[in-house]
Design a protein that fits this description.
Layout (H helix, E strand, L loop, with lengths): L6 E4 L5 H5 L7 E4 L7 E4 L9 E4 L11 E3 L7 E5 L4 H10 L2 H21 L6 H8 L3 H7 L3 H25 L5 H7 L1 H8 L2 H14 L3 H24 L11 H23 L5 H16 L4
Parallel strand pairs: 2-5
Antiparallel strand pairs: 1-6, 2-3, 3-4
Length: about 290
């Protein structure tokens, strides 16, 4: 048994240490370290392979957890943190680790699944936490509301489009319009996935009644439009290069309208003829974007 001013975990790590000690999953194991700071070690009932560590005095990770005095039954222990209020310093360090990004993605993916199936208003943080396999408090560590989770989803979507724009920028063998339509199949594959359609329509519906969500979508649209217009201008498509010009903006908006319309129409007509649609979009944009040709 380790003693003194250190918080400790089992040397084997993960859930196995609790099992080796003869403990039942779902119970919160406590170890008095001899200093004001105490670390709780929880064996998770959902079968997660990791141990959850936190200071005593907080609510249990799971409602049915109980606290035991198991000093005589703990396995061999090794130190994991320094004496004193480890929370502030350790938390600052943890936020910079890649694990934090992994946890955020875990929450975002769980929320996306919930929003698709149950809608924005039908989804609670508790429900997201259940799907993500973490406590509601853990989720609030990364996101303060469902709106901030939606913001992360929108930025993820924005990043997908940015990847396509990068591919478009690198394709200099043909003119801009032809290069864009080389990427059109991949673009349609992305935007017409049923899971993506259900999610984006739900977010759009919420934006119609939630000013904060509307602002998130509008800012994202503005950033992508500016980036696309700058790329088009660099490739000689001057008719759509100036997003501050009303005519240029209207021409650029045609593409957004066509793609948004396709997203909605894919619900009504799942077996849409993509190749014919792509040819029609190209013909429309050639007329609108190149009015003098």
């Amino acid at each position: 048994m380790a003693t003194g001013g250190k918080g400790c975990v089992g040397k084997h790590g993960g859930l196995s240490s609790a099992r080796d000690a003869g403990l039942c999953p779902g119970r919160l194991v406590t170890h008095q370290t001899g200093v004001p700071d105490k670390i709780g070690i929880a064996a998770c009932p959902d079968g997660l392979s990791r141990m959850r560590r936190r200071r005593l005095g907080s609510y249990p990770i799971f409602p049915h957890e109980t606290r035991l005095n198991v000093h005589s039954r703990m396995p061999t222990l090794i130190p994991i943190c320094s004496v004193g209020h480890w929370g502030a310093g350790a938390m600052r360090e943890r936020r910079t680790e890649p694990k934090a990004d992994m946890r955020r993605r875990q929450v975002v993916d769980a929320a996306a699944e919930c929003f698709r199936r149950e809608g924005f208003h039908g989804t609670s943080i508790a429900r997201i936490s259940q799907i993500a396999g973490m406590s509601p408090g853990h989720i609030y560590h990364y996101f303060d509301s469902k709106e901030t989770i939606v913001e992360a989803l929108v930025k993820q979507e924005e990043g997908d489009f940015a990847e396509l724009l990068q591919l478009l920028a690198e394709d200099t063998e043909v003119d801009f319009l032809d290069a864009m339509f080389r990427q059109m199949d991949e673009l349609l594959d992305r935007i017409l996935k049923p899971q993506r359609v259900a999610l984006m329509l739900e977010i759009a519906a919420e934006a119609a009644r939630n000013p904060r969500i509307a602002s998130i979508l509008q800012e994202s649209d503005r950033r992508l439009s500016q980036r696309f217009a700058a790329l088009a201008g660099a490739r000689g498509e001057t008719a759509i290069a100036a997003v501050d010009d009303p005519d240029s903006r209207a021409r650029l908006e045609i593409l957004a309208l066509l793609l948004s319309g396709l997203t909605l129409r894919s619900v009504h007509v799942p077996e849409i003829d993509r190749q014919r649609i792509v040819r029609s979009i190209k013909a429309i944009l050639a007329i609108v974007w190149r009015p003098t040709v």
